[in-house]
Specification:
The chain is an alpha/beta fold. The protein contains nine helices and ten strands. The strands form two sheets. It has an eight-stranded parallel β-sheet. It has a two-stranded antiparallel sheet with strand order 9-10. Helix 4 links the parallel strand 4 and strand 5. It is globular. Bound molecules: zinc ion (ZN). Zinc ion binds next to loops.
């Protein structure tokens, strides 16, 4: 079996230079490709370096709404440069009305600028959306989108919106955090996701799985638990268990979906 991680942050500083060790564990677990998302200009070079050194890494470059205040006046030029240098996706980009003290001002403008770049180059996009799904749907309906589709990473939007988003080209990515008992509503929404639009991710080092499913315990320098990217297989197993299906068909389906949206990069 081959496993595909639709979204993680392998470059994250909390992994403290242990990336090769993590990648080796992923390889042993039959993980063949992972989309590693940059979130701001300062981490784009790290993402590019990881991709140059490891063919498992599919690089993705974007400005995450949490880090907009860090952007330089050249950020769009820099983004285009990274996208031009190495086959890559766009992301993580998004809208966030959930994070306390985060200003919403300017988020839509930066999101749309990046969506536009992805649409013009027909590159897949990884989208983060918290408490802004209604607005996200409007923006996606009224702006150019990449023809090959876009990924709603850690999809936690309302189940009623799934078909409208799917019509626009959305893929819906499931993560291990939703295997926590109290996240039942989030899990249930995935019953509505069309089979040809399902993806699976770790979002490592964040979004840890429940303890009994965390087969690769890992900590940062301060003893805080981190999500290891090799936990991906447990996310697949958890989703298969929840949907009442077998693992093999889900693995095949996700492989086809991953290839359709990220293929060629
Ligand atoms: Zn992320």
């Amino acid at each position: 079996m081959k496993f595909y991680d639709a979204h993680n942050h392998l470059q994250d500083d909390r992994f403290a230079g242990r990336q090769n060790e993590l990648l080796a564990a992923c390889e042993k677990s039959d993980i063949v490709r992972m989309v590693v998302n940059g979130a701001c200009e300062s981490d784009w070079p790290q993402v590019a370096a990881l991709a140059r050194e490891n063919k498992m890494v599919l690089p993705s470059f974007g400005y995450h709404p949490w880090y907009l205040s860090e952007r330089t006046s050249d950020w769009q030029k820099n983004l285009e440069q990274f996208l031009g240098e190495i086959p890559s996706a766009v992301g993580e980009i998004g809208l966030d009305r959930w994070k306390p003290d985060l200003s919403y001002a300017g988020q839509e403008e930066v999101f749309l600028a990046q969506l536009q770049i992805a649409a013009a180059r027909n590159l897949p996009v990884s989208i983060h959306c918290l408490q802004a799904y209604g607005r996200l749907l409007e923006l996606l309906q009224n702006n150019p989108r990449p023809q090959r589709g876009f990924v709603l990473h850690s999809f936690g939007g309302p189940a009623e919106m799934i078909s409208a988003l799917a019509k626009l080209g959305a893929y819906f990515s499931f993560l291990g955090y939703f295997l926590n008992e109290r996240k039942q509503r989030r899990r249930e929404a995935f019953r509505q996701v069309p089979a040809e639009r399902l993806l699976i991710e770790t979002d490592a080092p964040d979004q840890l799985l429940p303890g009994d499913k965390n087969h690769f315990p890992l900590m940062d320098a301060n003893g805080k638990p981190l999500n290891h990217p090799a936990n991906l297989v447990a996310v697949y197993e958890g989703l298969a268990g929840f949907l009442g299906g077998k693992l093999v068909p889900i693995v095949k389906r996700v492989e086809e979906n991953f290839q359709r949206v990220f293929g060629g990069l």
